[in-house]
Structure formats: structure tokens, C-alpha cells
Hints:
The protein is mainly α. The chain has helices at residues 16-20, 26-32, 38-54, 56-73, 76-89, 91-95, 99-116.
Amino acid sequence: MSEGTRPRLPWARRLADFQADPNLALPLLELLKDDGEPYVRRSVANHLGDIAKDHPGLALDVCERWLREAKRSGDATAAANRRWIVRRALRHPAKKGNARAIAIVRLAAASGRLDRS
Length: 117
């Protein structure tokens, strides 16, 4: 799971290499983002949220791409799971007033409402 590579675990020492270069962990997050277990997806979201604190542009790019890919996939469950990951991952930058993060979170929330109508 991605917990072991999170750069900012609240209960462990920071992983300086992963904090400095989040590209080290992104391939793992890509593999786990659509995992069937909610706790794995939560870990991915939390990990991406950690990345967003140090590299917001990269995290925002990843979230936008994941939303686009999910929309194109046609898999409603995977799309809903990705929207949840994105909303959770971008909590911190959105609370800090990052306009792009707020827009992405709103898009993720709105996409879910549109899927149900």
C-alpha cells in the first residue's frame, strides 16, 4: 500500500527523498488509485494530499488527469472512487484558498451529481 511511502506520515519520520521528489511515488499511486479496497484508496488520497502540501502544481495536475481519465472510462464506480480520492487529496490546498484546487474539487463534486441525474 502507499502508506509506507507517504512523505508526511503523522506518526513517523518524514521521508525526505519522497518529499523532495514525489515522482518516486507516483507510479505506485497510479497502480493503486483504482484498488477495490476503500482503505487503499484512502491511503492514495492521503498520499496525494501530502504531495499537494509540497508540490501543489503536480498534485493538481494528477487530480485533473485522473478525473478526465475516469470520465472517459465509462466505469461509474471507478469514476466515483476517483472523484472521492480527488476531493480528499485536495482538502488542504482548497482550505488554504488555492483557486485551482477549489475548482477541481467543485468539478469532482459536480461530476458526481451529474452522473446521478
